[in-house]
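User: Can you predict the 3D structure for this chain?
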Amino acid sequence: MADLTGQPYLPADRDIADGKRVIVRIERGLNDAALDDAPDVPPRPLDELEPLVAGAARLRDEGLYGAAANDADRLLVELQAHVATGRGDHRRAAADLVTHAAYNAFVVATTYGYLHLAQHAAQRAWEAAILTEDPELVAFAMFARAPAIARNGGRGRAKRLLDRAISEARPLTAIRDGATRGAETFGLLNLMRAHLAARAEDADTAHAHLEAASDVAVRTGERNGFGQHFGPTNVQLWRVSIGVELGQGPDIAERFEREPIDLSALDSRDRTAALHFDLARAYAQADGARDAETVRHLDLADRMAPQRIRQDPIAHDIVTSLLRRARRRAWELDSLRNRFGLA
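Assistant: Here is the predicted structure, written as structure tokens:
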């Protein structure tokens, strides 16, 4: 992957350089402790660590990926110390928090292009989820584990893992007393499976899983049980992304222009940036005929979540293609070139 994309990239600006300093903290947090082995250092109580895990998730949702992992080393080590030394409910509660903290590390490492570290974090999240004996959390952890494996050359295995996880999560879709987390995880797994199928140009499988997620979303409504904003709105965003993966970019983008997605239900800079980035990718598939729209949406995505977009190899490729096709200088494109560090 590094040979193909050049990742991880040299930082294009000071903010990204500052953000990438957290990578060594994630490495330390995952390598200086384990679920059955931790340093002989007294950790802070779980009720002090829990709000730090939740705060990191909020920062990530706001597009502040570096800040979201700023304390990753101490947080992961201390939480794993609780798991290694705890018993019963205390141990399960600590393992729950490790799952979320390691998931956060997975997202940040993926954002900055450290894909093997991201897989390490996703694996730790899954191992911790197993210790909780909570099938909903185990299913959620697979939402990270499978794509991490796929990004490192294991697409076939990732699909098999997701197929098994979806089958095992089917009983979780029952909604009782307004509890929807199980149904949300089932929907998320189907969305991920649809995305992997689309990347393999398997349109039938992609649409089947997308519709399965859509059916569940109608029943759950707009939810955020695992910080993923699952619901009808987010399924629409995934529908755009999957359409782009299937090469239907211009048609998908034009449909969005006719029927805009109301993003107010999400209140997420991360997901909003993802939509604009997918729309930029969609218009880029028009082979130069819609480059103005490509620039507009890429600019919007970058302004929402620059640490994410400027580290994405597809975004780099789009900017390079736009520069190559441009017949005249345009300040909007020059601005993107400078922001991406493409002299």
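Residues 88-111 form the longest helix (24 residues). The chain has a mean pLDDT of 93.
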